[in-house]
C-alpha cells in the first residue's frame, strides 16, 4: 500500500438514493477462477433481489460501482426486498434459496458456512483480487491535493496514512489495504506540529479518513481537523482551488481532474461480495448481469448463464 501512496500516477481502480415502492423488512493469494461457469439449469425460478436500506454506505457504493439507481438513472427494481445491515442481509439470503444480495467481505468471511460468494466475471471476491484490480465490484479511495497548499501538518498526515500504523487504522474501518511493504510511522521527524487540516469530499471515505485523523491528532495534540462530507466531485474541486488542503474521492479520477495538476494517491480499496444461498447452483455472474438483476431486466435464475 505504501507503493500506492507514493506513486502519483493514475490508480487502478462500492454506496444511496431512494427508490420508490420497495418492500422494507427490518430485523435485526490472488487468483482468477475458471470454474465459475453456470452449467446447470436451476429450478429456483424468480430471483429474490435483496438490497440494503436507504442511506446505507454499502448500498450507495454498490449502486455506484454496478451503475444503477444513481442520479435517477436506471432505478432499482421495485420488487427488491430491503434489509438493514450486512448481517441481516446475510441471514435472509442464507434462508432463501432464490435470493441474491451483497455484503462486505468481512460478513462473507464470517458467514462462509451459510453463504456462497459468487465469482464476478470469473474472479473470486478476495482482498488480494481487489488489490490486484481484477475483482470488479470494488473501487479506490483516493486522496487529492495541490502540493503548494500543504503545510508540515498535512505532509505528516500523508506520511502517517502511508505507514503501517495508518494503514492498520484504515483497515480497522473495513477497507482493504496492503501493509506488506509499509513501515512504522516515525513521529520523531515532526516536532511541535501545530495547525488545522481542512479535509473533505466523499461521504464513503469519511469514516476511514476520520478514524485515521483521530489517531493522528492523538499523536499530535496541537493538531486539529475538520471533515466536510460533500461528495467526491466537490472533494476534488475543493482540493483544486484550495478550499480543502486534502480532498477525498471514492472513485477513480477523471482525465480532466488528473490533467488539472492535482497530486493524488490511493489510500485503500473498498470491495463488496455478491452472495447467494448455498443451495443455488449459480457460481458466476457478470457485472452486466448484476445490473440487470437489480434493475429488474433479469428476473429468473435461468437467465443468469
TrEMBL record:
Q: Please give the GO cellular component terms listed in this UniProt entry.
A: plasma membrane
Q: Which Pfam families match?
A: PBP_like_2
Q: Which UniProt keywords apply?
A: Lipoprotein, Palmitate, Phosphate transport, Signal, Transport
Topology of this chain in the membrane: Lipid-anchor
Q: Which InterPro entries match?
A: PBP_domain, Phosphate_ABC_transporter
Top-level taxonomic group: Bacteria
PBP domain ranges (all copies): 47-164, 195-303
Principal subcellular localisation of the protein? membrane
Q: Where in the cell is it found?
A: Cell membrane
Q: Which GO terms describe its biological process?
A: phosphate ion transport
Function noted in UniProt = Part of the ABC transporter complex PstSACB involved in phosphate import.
PANTHER family assigned:
PERIPLASMIC PHOSPHATE BINDING COMPONENT OF PHOSPHATE ABC TRANSPORTER, PHOSPHATE-BINDING PROTEIN PSTS
The record's comment on protein family reads: Belongs to the PstS family.
Subunit structure as annotated in this protein's UniProt entry: The complex is composed of two ATP-binding proteins (PstB), two transmembrane proteins (PstC and PstA) and a solute-binding protein (PstS).
What's the protein here called? Phosphate ABC transporter substrate-binding protein
